Amino acid sequence: MRLTRVKLAAGAAVALLALTGCGGSGDNGADGGSGSKNAAAEVPATATGSLEELAAEAKCKPDIQTDADEIRQGVCKVSGGKFILATFATDRGQREWLNAAKDYGGSYLVGAKWVAVGDQQMVGTLRGRLGGTVEEGASHHSGGSGAGGNETAHSGHHTG
């Protein structure tokens, strides 16, 4: 059932956001150093390929979490942090996943049938390697990361 797949994908996005602190914009520096103010001028053509090919371009080896016909998803760890990389069988499946996941906040780097999810710094670094366009999820904070309100009420922080 399609609704179940969307819920599964959104749940994966929630797990990543819990790992990355809800996509806050920390200045702790991501891997690669391409976060300069001229990064937009340095954006390559949008990458294409399998999950493993995209991960290689991003300089990581993915820990595959979901391996289904409609979506393949893995967690990548680099010196600057973690991100989720997902590939989709169809454009429609990708858009449904994004629409559901963006309700949880975060930053999304979007390519042709793939999405990378992480904090703003990580997405900026990945864009310098993979190209693509940046989309932002819903904001759940009134200020900087960790200082903006009742974070325990954020759906990505429920413990049980």
Compile the SSE list and pairings.
Layout: H1 2-20, H2 51-57, E1 63-67, E2 71-78, E3 81-88, H3 91-101, E4 107-111, E5 114-118, H4 120-130, E6 133-136
Antiparallel strand pairs: 1-2, 2-3, 3-5, 4-5, 4-6
Spatial order of strands in the largest sheet: 1-2-3-5-4-6
Topology, number of strands? 6
Could you name the ranges where pLDDT drops below 50 across 5 or more consecutive residues? 14-39, 142-160
Number of H/I helices: 4
Helix content: 25-40%
Q: Give the DSSP E fraction (strand runs of 2 or more residues).
A: 15-25%
Radius of gyration: 15 Å
Mean pLDDT: 75
The separation of the N and C termini measures 25 Å
The secondary-structure class comes to alpha+beta
Q: What is the chain-wise order of helices and strands? A: HHEEEHEEHE
Specify the oligomeric state.
single chain
The gross shape turns out to be: globular
The profile of the biggest β sheet is: 6 strands, antiparallel
Description:
- This protein has a six-stranded antiparallel beta sheet, with helices on both faces.
- By secondary structure, the protein is an alpha+beta fold.
- Residues 14-39 and 142-160 have low confidence and may be disordered.
- Helices cover 30% and strands 22% of the residues.
- Helix 1 packs across helix 3 (91-101).
- The two termini are 25 Å apart.
- The chain is built from four helices and six strands; from the N terminus they run ααβββαββαβ.
Structural key phrases:
single chain; about 160 residues; alpha+beta; six-stranded antiparallel sheet; 4 helices; disordered C terminus
